[in-house]
Amino acid sequence: MTPTTDARPAERTPGVPGAPGDYTAEMQTPGFRRDPYPLYARMRREDPVHRSPRGIWYLTRYADVETALGDLRLSNDRERITAALSARDGNLRSLSRLTSRLGRVMTNTDPPDHARLRKLVNKAFTARRIEALRTRLQEIVDRLLDAAVAAGPTMDVIRDLAAPLPDTVVCELFGIPDDDRAHVTAWFRVLGNLSEDVEQAEAVVGQFEDYLSRLIHRRRAEPGDDLISALVTAQARGDQLTDEELLSTCFMLITAGDETTTNLIGNGTLALLRHPGQLARLRAEPALIRQAVDELVRYDTPTQVIIRAVAEELRIGGRTLPEGDLVYLVLAATNRDPERFDDPDRLDLTRPGNRHLSFGNGPHFCLGGPLARLEAETAIGTLVRRLPELRLTGDPLNWRPNPLQRRLAALPVAY
Predict the structure, then answer these.
(1) Dist. CA 260–CA 187, nearest whole Å
(2) Out of 124, 187, 205, 248, which could bridge 103 as a Cys pair, Cβ 3.0 to 4.6 Å?
(3) Alpha helices in 88-133 (DSSP H)
């Protein structure tokens, strides 16, 4: 494994062969959207702790990012990240308004608030509750595939399975009434495109928060067997959860896993279709599905980048990161670091020691990771089993223009 402290890379002039230059210009190209991994490999080799002309640090080595995820000097606090974003130009400044709008939840706080909020959410979002969903998940997947096959002989995996599955699951977990689900899922779609249309996303945040405020009020009067009721009950017991934190926590839990799970299913299915040998092995050994999902999320992770702000000057990878700077932890690059993974650009469903960072690490390890895995196992496993002639029908594919998330607009297949 590459150490996290080493000699600082020599400064080189952009445009000179072998120089790191401004990688961010290449990140705006269609080629990068189609396949970002060659550029990330170059960044790891040439300038693994890179500061762009816009003043954003990009960390691309596994060892550096693993260390950074556990270092509290790299802050996830909403106010620090908002300030760091607003100090930049263009769409980042717009995103700073949205970050400020989202309120204080455990995903944008540091200890001790983070530990307090996460402890309360853990009481509602238990492993037992998630595991109990296994049978219901299978029912939902079978229903969605039945409808797609009946309309066949082609389907869009994103539209027909990968998007509606987490939509349905999250609505059921949080007790969203059937009559409201069309509105809620429409809001999900807008929030999934927040970096593409910040103003529209801001408007939807306001609408969704108003809706959740009314729903929380109803659950206080008539609690049910859902996660909003569980959080309301925790607050009523005297746990330290303000009304603002309750609202923001419900908002975060409902929206956070929706887009990520959709993209995990879409990206994972595409990877299998492009690697017929691995697909055949999974069909022959369906019990591999749990290990396979871990490899699929490593190979083409939905969350490409995690953002942090420097709360206190630190050195990492031989570079000094000043207080107030913005840091991008490039999970997509770390998951293909040859210092950590053998032959990292190869898809291997039986890869041993697969300690990828797709769900983060340290105090902010993704709370919804087990649910996302279970949904992907059920969706991909069932798709592979039920449709033995599954094949890709459209390539090149359209990838959404969001550098933080790897997202297909559609995945057309025949079966």
Answers:
(1) 15
(2) 248
(3) 91-101, 113-124, 127-131
Q: Is residue 339 very low, low, confident or very high in pLDDT (cuts 50, 70, 90)?
A: very high
Rounded Cα gap, residues 330 and 89, in angstroms: 21
Omega before 276 within 30 of 0, i.e. cis: no
The average pLDDT across 340-363 equals 93
d(CA 61, CA 69): 12
- Cis amide linkage into residue 112, ω under 30° from 0: yes
For residues 162 and 269, is the Cβ–Cβ distance under 8 A?
yes
3-state secondary structure of 383: helix
pLDDT tens digit string along 185-205?
Answer: 888 878 766 666 667 777 888
* Rounded Cα gap, residues 148 and 16, in angstroms: 52
pLDDT at residue 3 in the model: 33
Residue 241: both structure tokens together? 């959860």
- CA 341 to chain CA centroid, Å, is 21
Query: Residue 138 above 70 pLDDT?
Result: yes
End-to-end CA distance of the chain: 43
* Residue with token string 């189609």: 34
CA dist., res. 102 & res. 97, Å (int): 9
Surface-to-core class of residue 113, CB atoms within 10 Å of its CB (0-12 exposed, 13-18 middle, 19+ buried): middle
Measured from the Cβ of residue 364, the count of other Cβ atoms closer than 10 Å reads 20
153-170, pLDDT tens digit by residue?
A: 999 999 999 999 999 998
Residue entry with tokens 């839990």: 253
Between CA 268 and CA 125 the distance in angstroms is 25
Mean pLDDT within 320-341: 96
What would the two tokens of residue 312 be?
A: 């206190």
3-state secondary structure 215-260: HHHHHHHCCCCCHHHHHHHHHHCCCCCCHHHHHHHHHHHHHHHHHH
Answer yes or no: are the C-beta atoms of 397 and 408 closer than 8 Å: yes
